[in-house]
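Subject: Sanity check before I submit

Could someone independently write out the structure tokens for this chain? I want to compare against mine line by line before I put it in a report. The sequence has 410 residues.
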Amino acid sequence: MILNYIWIGFLLIAFVVACIQTFFFGNTEVFTNIMHATFDSAKTGFEISLGLTGVLALWLGIMKIGENGGIIKTFSRLVSPFFSKIFPDIPKNHPVMGSIFMNISANMLGLDNAATPMGLKAMKELQTINKEKDKASNSMIMFLVLNSSGLTIIPITIMVYRAQLGAVNPTDVFLPILLATFFSTLVGFLSVAIMQKINIFNRTILFTLCALILLIAGIFLLLFHLPKEQIAIYSNIATAFILFSIIIGFVLMGAFRKINVYESFIEGAKDGFKVAIDIIPYLIAILLAIGVFRASGALNFIVDGIAQFVNFLGINNEFVEALPTAFMKPLSGSGARGMMIDAMTQHGADSFVGRLVSILQGSTETTFYVLAVYYGSVGIKKTRYTLGCSLLADLAGIIAAILIGYLFFY
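---
Independent answer below. Compare away.
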């Protein structure tokens, strides 16, 4: 229901802002730009879904091999002690535990193409144990908030863009991004835990959180001792190795268990095609609202208003130039990426703004996209407090990114 109000709100605000620009500021092109945005959004939504078809077919095929070969059940048992505490509604040793683990792991490693199919598979499995089919369950909410908070250990794509735009040390934002995205995920997790009355002081939960902190610290120390220019190279090799190792591991285990690996892959790939078709309407709908909101100039009005308010308070306002990336990230990943590149082009990749937009880009995920695609794939209409907790995590990530940016680079 909340997405319904958000969608309507975006369109109405865009219309009001466009009217103001036309009748008060003489901008005669704004409605033309809005109509172009509607067609472009519909085209983009279809193209994204079409592009996802092959990726979904590939990874849901691989996941089906893992499911038939018993690997997903093995993952379920491994993560069950912790996941059973934060997903108490999921039956013990249910296969969805393995799918959730694989999705979160892929996100942490920056493997976006692998994470989405695994996440969509997890949503389908969560829907099978959901008692109210049009209403998000507690487990779905926790899963999607963890997804939308965007915990990423290795932000390969951002470092690649920085290198292409002439950064002297493209990897200098690695630690700031890691810290910002960790705070975002922590706030998202705690907000859902409070809403669902999960005991965060449970020994298993505390131990896992501490282990995660140590893991992040260990990765930082390991990469810190490498030559800076080689960090991106080693990170890229590591993620590619891990990704292909997963594929080979699933295939070998399936062969060891004497299942028909090829037929299992085909079975899963068919599911991937169906999922890609199902999400098209939801994706077009959310991209339409975002495109119209942006084309109307509403986003620019918000940024300009914040700049004037910050100036009134007498606070350093250099971070304001990076805010369009921050505001766009929950709405559109490609839009935020475009704004990040534009900011680095205008101000320089090694400027304060150039580094800050990189941190902001890596601090959170595309919340509205994630909610629209994941919930749309299983027909959930009542999302409850998912959006509120996700946006709270986004806000924490944005604030952390700005403060960390000043701490490291100003």
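---
OP: Matches mine. For the report I'm noting this point. The first helix runs from residue 2 to 25.
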